[in-house]
Specification:
Helices cover 30% and strands 25% of the residues. The chain has helices at 97-105, 128-143, 150-160, 216-226, 233-249, 253-272, 283-299, 323-330; strands at 5-10, 13-22, 25-29, 34-36, 41-42, 46-50, 63-70, 77-80, 83-85, 111-118, 172-175, 188-190, 200-206, 304-307, 315-319, 338-343, 350-351, 359-362, 365-368. It binds (3R)-3-hydroxy-3-methyl-5-(phosphonooxy)pentanoic acid (PMV).
């Protein structure tokens, strides 16, 4: 009970303010395309690493979410980064419906207050839906005292946002695409890795911090529906999963990096082949891609890998000892606003103490802090 703030016992039910932390993840082999829109079932499996809750420069890099179910509330209330969100707005309150899903399982009718803050130095385009929805699923399950496994939790987080299923865990995480229509076999699990991979770092190059124009959900749909090139993507990604698992097992960074780069390029090529074309990368991203290709060529092997999600900010995956070489290789590129250096995280979602709560009780009222 240490981390749980018990407010009051209404009948048999306790109102517990739960506070959790979740971190974004960066995919090495990407998820792009759904076989079921409602359940977020993917066309292919994907693999990622969960990022640390702070950058190497000490800036926070995490989602903190507090949540309480209470009879004191007359409606569901959702506050994101200090702004009240209309819970019926599917864009702004992305995935909020998973709370109803869990509430039904728990047969609980109380309204919820959810307060969530992303403490990324830049709040847009940095996989905030992965950490946000993982935190939402985790906190809800904890607040309603449901005894469910991490595997099941990852399927619930997945329904909120596909990539969120991977943020339940720390380390390197595999999200199985699954075959079943109900999605019960489309879950994530952590992969056992040797200490060789413990010093992986993601150098996130911010080239544009404004909100992306095409959401990942809309972009995926356009690609799946219109790109002929996309037809080969699911099999290609599955092949990349097998190869990257082998590279991880053999501690082979050269091959690991090669797969990361080609999978990202392949995903962006399917986007480009869509009608209308979806182009997330910008000229600065292209300069960074070229510089990393040149660096690897000079080194005679891949010492760094670039990868881009649905946005223009390249992530460069590198071992800690090679950060300086990458920084030197990209230092003359104009337009990089900032580089966030974030290590791999051992932990996934976790409970925080009451002192970190974003909700306070004021008499009979609950208020966001
Ligand atoms: O979970 P979503 O809907 O935000 O989709 C994530 C898609 C990519 O970031 C482009 C790839 C991935 O696997 O994370």
């Amino acid at each position: 009970m240490n981390n749980i703030n018990v407010i009051k016992n209404y009948g048999n039910k306790m109102d517990k303010i739960i506070t959790v932390e979740a971190k974004p993840n960066i995919a090495f082999v990407k998820y792009w395309g759904k076989r079921d829109l409602k359940l977020n079932l993917p066309k292919n499996s994907s693999i990622s690493m969960t990022l640390s809750n702070a950058t190497l420069d000490g800036e926070p890099f995490k989602t903190v979410t507090s949540l309480v179910f209470s009879d004191k509330l007359n409606e569901d209330e959702f506050y994101l980064n200090g702004k009240k969100i209309d819970t019926s707005n599917k864009d702004e309150a992305k995935g909020f419906w998973i709370i109803d899903y869990i509430r039904n399982i728990a047969e609980d009718k109380r309204h919820v207050m959810l307060v969530s803050n992303n403490s990324f130095p830049t709040s847009n385009g940095l996989a905030s839906s992965a950490s946000g929805l993982a935190a939402m699923a985790y906190a809800t399950v904890k607040a309603l005292d449901l005894d469910i496994s991490d595997k099941e939790l990852s399927t619930i987080a997945r329904m909120g946002s596909g990539s969120a299923s991977r943020s339940i865990y720390g380390g390197i995480v595999l999200w199985h695409k699954g075959e079943k229509e109900d999605g019960s076999d489309s879950y994530s699990e952590p992969i056992k890795i040797s200490p060789y991979w413990n010093d992986l770092v993601d150098l996130i190059c911010i080239t544009n911090s404004t909100k992306k124009k095409v959401s990942s959900t809309a972009g995926m749909q356009t690609t799946v529906q219109t790109s002929e090139f996309y037809r080969m993507r699911p099999d290609y990604a599955e092949k990349n999963i097998k190869e990257i698992m082998k590279a991880l097992e053999e501690n082979n960074f050269n091959s690991f990096a090669n797969i990361i780069m080609k999978d990202s390029n392949n995903m962006h090529a399917t986007m480009m082949d869509s009608k209308p074309p979806i182009i997330y990368i910008n000229d600065i991203s292209k300069d960074i891609i070229n510089s990393i290709e040149e660096l690897n060529k000079r080194e005679g092997e891949n010492i760094a890998a670039y990868t881009l999600d649905a946005g223009p900010n390249p992530h460069i995956i590198v071992k800690k000892e090679n950060i300086k070489k990458v920084e030197d290789a990209i230092k003359d590129i104009e337009g990089i606003e900032k580089i966030l250096k974030v290590q791999i995280s051992e932990t996934g979602c976790r409970l925080l103490g009451d002192e970190e709560s974003l909700i306070k009780e004021d008499g009979l009222k609950l208020i966001p802090k």
